[in-house]
Design a protein that fits this description.
The protein is an alpha+beta fold. It contains 17 helices and eleven strands. About 50% of the residues are buried.
Length: about 475
């Protein structure tokens, strides 16, 4: 398990000015694609981050043996050289260049926390892989394809997950055993329906009930994971609060999952950042991989075609604009209405409800001694957040802004988007609010003194992203 803490100097700071900001990416043109690791900071490659781009993918070809089921036309698996050892990429279509650039920006911010996420960059020239057209003005987000990644919902049904759950002291209880048996039976029923999906949805309410039942059992298994896994999920949940990632866990319990590195060590990983920084998103899959519209589309034709469909947001859900402000209020750590499918995120927030921000110093120090306790997890995340400053954020914000504006209609439907200075202010203000809710700089510093080895490990994971540590 990773843990981190706050540096003796406290929270990183810096002046805000886009004038003279150092830009890490190539200007909007076509950038060369150098070698880089698939998961920066976690893959052991020691490779630097890939430049933002846009990189030329006009020669990229679809991977023909990619399994088509569960893959929407929003994404394509491509490679630049069709041979067994060639790197593969997941390329996502975005509604505008601005949205593609913002997704890239959010992925960098998540990586800067020292959390595992696929290396991301922007590409152009691959529109034919999506709709057969030649549209060089379109901008896409590309991430490394990770065959050892499984979406959380799928992973929870595997034998690997069961060994983790049953390996806790005393083993899995009867409720977990029943949930596992039932989720496998539901999965078999859904596979049978998948052979004739259109007919299976004649009664959309019944289909939605099946999907909900499956996810309810998955959530029960998720809650039974040991504390070291709970900590890993909580890290990404807190990162989602910072970034306003309102679709952290989608209708199929995807977008977050488990990746195994070359040493077969598991990491929780967020793979989709299209719903961050106040953005709406395009579409989402229901329980068996069929693509459904997101956002406004549910208020129109789809809501009447698929009444009760599981892809619809929780009724208490609030739109991105209503919760992505400069201030994160008290109570936000457990406010599931910030998420489109808040019920799926409930296991991630369960322990945070026990975090008492007004605890006295002695109580905090005593609770920090449990390395997988919620107090230590909160202090660790305060440390991770506190190491990220304006000098890290502003160049990324400026890169995303400049690249989007260089493309035709790059800011279409994004007229309210912040300029780089304002965006950096908002992100750092949210950082400060979260640090306070997580116990403050004092708790983070106390945690670092208790766990210096873990702090050093997280510093190494963050270092490729932080300006002061990558020699910029």
């Amino acid at each position: 398990m990773d843990i981190n803490a706050c540096s003796p100097t406290g929270i990183a700071s810096g002046r805000f000015s886009a004038v003279g900001a150092q830009r890490e990416g190539a200007p909007p043109g076509t950038a060369p694609l150098a070698a880089f690791g698939p998961v920066t900071g976690h893959d052991g490659s020691g490779s630097p981050l890939p430049p933002v781009g846009p990189h030329d993918f006009s020669e990229a070809q679809p991977v023909h043996d990619a399994v088509p089921s569960g893959v929407s036309r929003e994404t394509a698996r491509l490679w630049l050289a069709p041979h067994a050892e060639a790197a593969q990429f997941v390329v996502r279509a975005c509604p505008s260049a601005w949205r593609a650039a913002q997704s890239w920006f959010a992925s960098r911010l998540c990586g800067a926390l020292g959390l595992a996420t696929p290396a991301a960059f922007l590409v152009r020239g691959c529109s034919s892989a999506f709709d057969g057209t030649h549209a060089p003005e379109r901008l896409y987000l590309a991430t490394t394809y990770l065959p050892a990644y499984r979406a959380l919902g799928q992973w929870l049904e595997t034998d690997t997950a069961w060994r983790v759950i049953d390996g806790v002291r005393g083993g899995a209880d009867e409720a977990c055993k029943q949930a596992r048996a039932e989720v496998h039976e539901i999965g078999r029923r859904m596979e049978q329906r998948g052979a004739n999906a259109a007919q299976a949805r004649t009664d959309a309410q019944a289909y939605a009930a099946i999907v909900k039942a499956r996810n309810d059992r998955r959530a029960m298994l998720c809650r039974a994971l040991p504390d070291v896994y709970q900590c890993a999920l909580e890290r990404h949940y807190i990162a989602a609060l910072w970034l306003g990632n309102w679709n952290l866990c989608d209708a199929a319990m995807g977008n977050i999952g488990v990746w195994r590195d070359k040493n077969d060590l598991p990491y929780i990983m967020t793979v989709d950042f299209s719903a961050c920084l106040g953005s709406e998103v395009q579409g989402e899959r229901d329980g068996d991989g069929v693509t459904l519209p997101r956002g406004r589309a549910f208020a129109s034709s789809e809501s009447s075609r698929w009444p009760g469909l599981s892809g619809r947001p929780d009724m208490s859900y609030r739109s991105p604009a209503s919760h992505y402000g400069a201030v994160i209020p008290e109570g936000a750590l457990t406010d599931l209405t910030q998420f489109r499918h808040g019920g799926h995120c409930a296991p991630f927030a369960r322990r945070l409800d026990a975090l008492t921000p007004a605890a006295d110093g002695k109580t905090v120090l005593d609770e920090l001694k449990d390395p997988t306790g919620v107090r230590a997890l909160a202090a660790e995340m305060a440390y991770r957040l506190g190491r990220i400053g304006a000098s890290d954020i502003l160049p990324w914000a400026a890169n995303a802004h400049d690249i989007a504006r260089a493309f035709p209609a790059g800011t279409a439907n994004d007229g309210s988007a912040d300029d780089p200075d304002s965006q950096a202010h908002r992100i750092l203000s949210r950082r400060d609010c979260l640090v306070t809710l997580l116990g403050g700089t004092w708790a983070a510093q106390a945690w670092e003194r208790l766990y210096p080895t873990r702090a050093a490990a997280i510093q190494a994971q963050q270092s490729p992203f932080l300006t002061s540590e990558r020699g910029m």
